[in-house]
Design goal:
Elements lengths: L24 E5 L5 H14 L4 E5 L8 H7 L6 E5 L11 H20 L5 E5 L1 H6 L5 H9 L6 E6 L4 H6 L2 E4 L20
Parallel strand pairs: 1-5, 1-6, 2-3, 2-4, 4-5
Bound molecules: adenosine-5'-triphosphate and magnesium ion.
Adenosine-5'-triphosphate (ATP) binds next to α1.
Length: 193
């Protein structure tokens, strides 16, 4: 039985010597906004430490985003961004094509996971590909179980299979309480893309 987690003041935390360090598997999922934003926030922190981050985005990437512009310019030394889902539709009308796109993205995910150049890898929206069964969760879990020990991996998307929650070190659900979209306000640069 997992204990319920609540925010704690630092003084309430267990003594530091009880803790160890390891490369983490972090899962940001749910129907609320902030999953990709949180992952990119970690990439920014990592850049501050001189690390390299590889971001693999499982989406149809026709539009320009702030993160792709930053990765091509300001943060070029630190963030490599691969927008992979050229065939993705999410409506599953082109299932075969979507599977091929997801496979291609998954190949890239495995490649960057093993590449020692990257300390942090982000598999952005991979959970959608699992939800629609373009990828098999067993393959993803297996790959995570044999990841290089020091490497951090962040997975995002709306739905998280139990097997993935089990293998993750951190699971955060973003839950929507209010979103400007419902008041007729469209996505905006800097905040949404
Ligand atoms: P972000 O990239 O802004 O952190 P996200 O990764 O949590 O969002 P996605 O499912 O990837 O969420 O959706 C990306 C886009 O959809 C963003 O423009 C975001 O504002 C919007 N979005 C996210 N959650 C909701 C929601 N509950 N209702 C409406 N739009 C949403
Ligand atoms: Mg996202």
């Amino acid at each position: 039985m997992m204990k319920k987690k609540t925010d704690r003041a630092p003084r309430e935390a267990p003594p530091r010597k009880k803790f160890k360090k390891k490369g983490l598997i972090l899962l940001y999922y749910g129907n609320g906004k902030g999953k990709t934003t949180a992952a990119l926030g970690a990439a920014l922190r990592a850049a501050g430490w001189g690390w390299k981050t590889a971001v693999v985005q499982f989406i149809k990437g026709a539009w320009k985003t702030g993160e792709s512009a930053a990765a091509a310019g300001l943060l070029k030394q630190h963030i490599t961004l691969a927008v992979m889902g050229d065939g993705f539709t999410w409506d599953t009308r082109h299932y075969e094509e979507d599977c091929r796109s997801a496979e291609k993205a998954w190949k890239k995910c495995r490649e960057v996971l093993r590449d020692p150049a990257y300390q942090l890898v982000i598999w952005d929206e991979i959970l959608y590909a699992l939800k629609y069964r373009f990828l098999d969760v067993k393959d993803v879990v297996r790959e995570l179980q044999k990841k290089p020990a020091g490497k951090h991996v962040i997975l995002t998307g709306n739905y998280a299979p139990e097997a993935l929650k089990a293998v993750a070190d951190l699971v955060t659900e973003m839950r929507c309480r209010k979103h400007p979209f419902d008041s007729g306000i469209l996505a905006q640069p800097g905040i949404d893309f």
